[in-house]
Amino acid sequence: MIKTKRVAVAGFGNVGKGVIEVLLQGQIPELKLEKIVVKHPGKIRPFSVDPSLIVTDFSQVIRDPNIDVIVEVMGGIKDAVSLILSALRNGKDIVTANKVVISQHGNEIFSLAIKLGRTVGFRGTFVGCNALIHDLSLSARRIRRMCAILNGTCNYILSHMARSGISFEQALREAQEKGYAEANASEDIDGLDTAHKIQILLGVISNTYNIPPDIPCEGIRDITMQDIQYAKELGYAIKLLGVIERENGSVTVFVRPTLVPHGTMLASIEDANNAIELENDLGVVSGLIAPGAGTYPTTVAIINDLLDIARGATLMMPTLNTPIVLNDIGNIRGRYYLRLTVKDQPRVLAQITRILGDHDISLASVIQKESAPAEAVPVVMTTHEVKERELRTALEKVDQLEVVKAKTKIIPILEGRSQQPAFIR
Amino acid sequence: MIKTKRVAVAGFGNVGKGVIEVLLQGQIPELKLEKIVVKHPGKIRPFSVDPSLIVTDFSQVIRDPNIDVIVEVMGGIKDAVSLILSALRNGKDIVTANKVVISQHGNEIFSLAIKLGRTVGFRGTFVGCNALIHDLSLSARRIRRMCAILNGTCNYILSHMARSGISFEQALREAQEKGYAEANASEDIDGLDTAHKIQILLGVISNTYNIPPDIPCEGIRDITMQDIQYAKELGYAIKLLGVIERENGSVTVFVRPTLVPHGTMLASIEDANNAIELENDLGVVSGLIAPGAGTYPTTVAIINDLLDIARGATLMMPTLNTPIVLNDIGNIRGRYYLRLTVKDQPRVLAQITRILGDHDISLASVIQKESAPAEAVPVVMTTHEVKERELRTALEKVDQLEVVKAKTKIIPILEGRSQQPAFIR
Description:
- The structure is a homodimer.
- By secondary structure, chain A is an alpha/beta fold.
- Chain A has 13 helices and 16 strands.
- In chain A, helix 3 (78-89) packs parallel to helix 4 (99-116).
- Chains A and B meet through helix 1, helix 5, strand 11 and helix 11 of A and helix 1, helix 5, strand 11 and helix 11 of B.
- Strand 11 of chain A pairs antiparallel with strand 11 (285-291) of chain B, so a sheet runs across the interface.
């Protein structure tokens, strides 16, 4: 006996239209589209909808006893939060694809939902890594490390720079022309969108809605074509990664451009795809490549939430209020790529390497190329394993040298992790 | 209120030990290990187990009213089928990792389970693509196309041949030395293991346990180092693929070596990993890379089944008896790689291309290299799109030419499918 859930969709934009289209096809007996909330009822839609479904006032669905679940896909923050909270208070379950709302207001929303015994589905906020995260949360396993490419715009720009040998500015312009980046691309290229998703995933993985409001986050704005070329020579691609790693009770979390070894799955991700690599506490590593956004990928995520609600399955909603203690990224031990900008004159390298040596920082490689006479030239180095705090202390001194002409760029290098050796057919 | 399921594990081999280890850790409140069935109770185990858990006779767990679920990980066919059927009749749910049992006896097992209202979990039979298949089945979406690398041994051999420029025989020998292939590797290299998994997935995807007992299946035994090198020059890797594709109500299913375009996810899979690429009926493409076997990956799959049973979630068990009508692979339209073995003498190419032309088969490329004088030399061709039946008819005539010295090898070429263009952040 199937119990049908009656659904209202708030929003008829890119995502809303996909959800409405699938619900109207009527192939899912558990779900019935009851109402659509739109701002502009007169607007022309990609397909026609029975006018009796359309309402313009949220309160009409929030108070409607014939609505069981509200899908919030209208975007924005203030109105969306207020809709979600009132809907919960009125006994509705919620499904949302709103990353900013969940990453910044998850605490308020989840704690209220739990108090009221309601469900909030938010797979739509991390479309590209849904399947693996769901599988992990199902399996009662803990994550050891997660590395993910979660922003299609950044990955498009970085892979386009690598493929075509063009500058960041030019790649961004082309991404904007092709509709892969918005006119104001800051949310993407400064890493904020990735950070929102990492905050949400951190909550899911740790089963807490008390997620840190800020995490260390660095975008791709000052990655140069030269960085990408040097990295390539050294055997790496540069990707904007979100990383969550647990070790001995502490959690390291950051969003940063990172050198990823060629031949790994993450290095092979091109264009606007998302990808995630997970290692669980049994050492099992798996990877997922999926579109991180788009009408239908997001629609599938939302429909999966609705179906879980209709079937009474447990959703991946964090249920505890446990605070998360983040490891200071100064404590990270790892290898680093350094791009120094120095005067093209004798004995410059000697001055720099002496300071690094004094701080016990040992170098794995140095690349300095012949160049046309110029005010300043790049010198690229990679370090052996070092503690990031010590590296930064040394580089502060290096950057004070008269021959160093700009702040040294530091990019972490991701170490490949070998797979579980156990093998049976 | 958590209802604990009491579990018996039948088998203490590679997989059994992982499941037993995780259950004994006691971190999963829904699952309690009650009994372990072993053949040789005196055998030394990787960790010690309370002797009161050990029994040597299946009937002891089948008839034990304190057992709710039996995990069948003992291998073999006849005993495993008989254990599963009796256990179902005695009111137990079943979780198994036994591919041959599920692909060859799924009909009997699933129909009995459905009649009795019991559950059979079998995620362990397709470890490498679990997460995506589960997500798909959850989403009430239909698959349009699935292409998968499902056998670690074959992928190890093919990627090792490509990397090291060695012959099939040498790569197989090294795989056997390293424990990646068994002494009798036929099940792997002749494609049977992949075919079993494809049969199981076909049932899951189509929600029927009436799966065809045989599907078109060709292994990698006669892929030569030259095939791999020519394919590489043409921009492809050779992979053993299992493919399921639906179009207009018919289903095309096969296991065959296939040319996969460089730069795609499937072409990038190295060594013993498994990978799957799924396209659903909304055009959403996603890919998963995961170990296809191994103690802990299989353990996680089995534990997920147990947890689904404990939580009363719907498992991916096919519930209908609908027969599947397979499209004759002669009807496939596609591009092909052909390796002809011809006498090294003038006008050979002219004779061959005339026959192909008479059958309307047009060529995309021809590679014939200068070679030391020899009885027979390879000529490689790729075709434009053609119906496989027509190609085979033409090649039968070609192979009858006096100048053609061996049966022409035909390898299909996988066409890249571009992703859903819709893009939002």
